[in-house]
Amino acid sequence: MPGKAEVIIGAQWGDEGKGRVVDALADRVDLVVRYQGGANAGHTVIVGKDKYIFHLLPSGMLYTGKTCVIGNGVVVDPGQLLTELKDLQDKGKDRARLVVSGAAHVVMPYHKVLDEAEERLRGKGRKIGTTHRGIGPCYADKVNRIGIRVEDLLDAEVLRMKLRQNLELKNLYLSRVCGVDPLPFDDLFRTAFDWGKSIAPYVGDASRVVNEALDAGKGVLFEGAQGTLLDMDHGTYPYVTASTPVSAGACTGSGVSPTRIDRVLGVVKAYCTRVGEGPFPTENKGEIGERLREKGSEYGATTGRPRRCGWLDLVALRYAARVNGLTGMALTKLDVLTGLDEIQVAVGYELDGEVTEHFPGGGHRLDRVVPVYRSLPGWKEEIGGCRKVEDLPENARNYVRFLEDFSGVKALLIGVGPAREETILQGL
Ligand code: GDP
Ligand code: IMO
Ligand code: MG
Question: According to CATH, what is the number of the domain 105-199?
Fold first, then answer.
């Protein structure tokens, strides 16, 4: 059935508004699937006066009758998952059914200790600025084939054996290299086994659940975390996360074939932000950056860190359109640009005396580019009440059209405010 499986990805450095876009579209589908990342994500959904920030749970949890899936590609911190679930239960909002893949890897307490310790060891000039959620060390164990998976938490003997092997090495590394106290086996084992007992009712064969839903003609949204430029392969390496946020990650991270994906919607903020270290060509450390941060409330949903802000980078957007195969764009936070006399967008990079419209591979080259800007006229009218593109002021419409023409991707959803209803939908 065409048009049934849609991947929602971040087209920039994360925090584009993926949570609100998933929330806006979730009532039309049956399943919402997270396929990578972990509790480093912070996806905000605002409904009426209530604000929800999803870190591990898919952003479809508020809808009755839906199934929310945590796929094999996600790294699960069970403590965080249970806290998020309890918060929703306390509010009576845990409305969807939850399925957690047994093959997803578990973020253990030592991964978080390692994440912090390794950042400290990297020091000022080399640190990544991670979220300290244990993401990199957990994926490293997965690749090293020593990780503990969700299914292992359900079997005391398997867990004991895997944890013992792991902890021996981790404690050596922690104490000898990182100068951190070793962690006691008994406490960790008890914590992990208790987690297993609590999440057992949710553990299942996620790939089968998703594929059977597709077979039955049901709609599925794949909810990416982070963003294209934080992708381990396609992002600004080494200043990236340790997973695959690009659209292809939806397949490996949930056990679904590429032939089943119908559409890829790229979530694009109307300007750019980045949290943590790494190149950011259009970053504005002056008045404009400050203004975007304050008007856009650009503070991390997970760590509370102020986000770095700057103009929209269309070179990067075109690149994101290519590596994700975008079939549409969800343009968020257009309202944050209201009131500016003129708005700049980067349409090229000057690198070593030459101008290019292509995003250069290699993070070190990106450090040296100087953006070439195009200035577009701003608008003064508030746009929060607009529900159709035609309601937008002419200059706002022109801004959207310029983005569409440059990237070759149509804006199918436009965010004109953070609330669920502050959304313009066209052609979705
Ligand atoms: P995500 O990680 O991609 O889900 O994005 P975050 O939730 O981390 O950050 C996006 C922020 O922008 C949140 O605070 C949202 O409530 C807010 N937001 C999303 N869309 C809009 C919009 O169209 N207008 C405004 N003003 N805020 C928005
Ligand atoms: P959502 O899903 C923005 C950034 C961190 C750091 C780098 C590596 O809300 O868009 P990690 O802890 O993953 O090893 O950190 O990635 N980062 C994010 N930035 N939004 C996110 O998630 C992020 N998740 C990780 O700041 O620079
Ligand atoms: Mg976020």
Answer: 1.10.300.10
AA identity, residue 214? L
- Residue 30 clears pLDDT 50, i.e. is over it: yes
Q: What is the length of the chain?
A: 428
State the closest ligand 1 atom to the C-alpha of 334, by its place in the atom list counted from 1: 23
Q: 358-367, 369-378, 380-389, 403-412: lowest mean pLDDT where?
A: 358-367
Query: Which ligand 1 atom is the nearest neighbour of the CA of 227?
Result: 3
Nearest ligand, measured from the Cα of 41? 2
* CA 379 – CA 261 distance, rounded (Å): 38
Establish whether 43 is a catalytic residue. Answer: yes
pLDDT band at 367 (very low <50, low <70, confident <90, very high): confident
What is the CATH number assigned to the segment(s) 267-425?
Answer: 3.90.170.10
The pair of structure tokens assigned to 55 is: 């870190």
Q: CATH number of the domain at 5-102+201-264, please? A: 3.40.440.10
Distance CA 191, CA 198 (A): 11
Q: Token pair of 394, please?
A: 């002419």
What pTM does this model have? 0.97
Give domain limits for the chain: 5-102+201-264, 105-199, 267-425
Ligand 2 pocket member 44 (CB < 6 A) = no
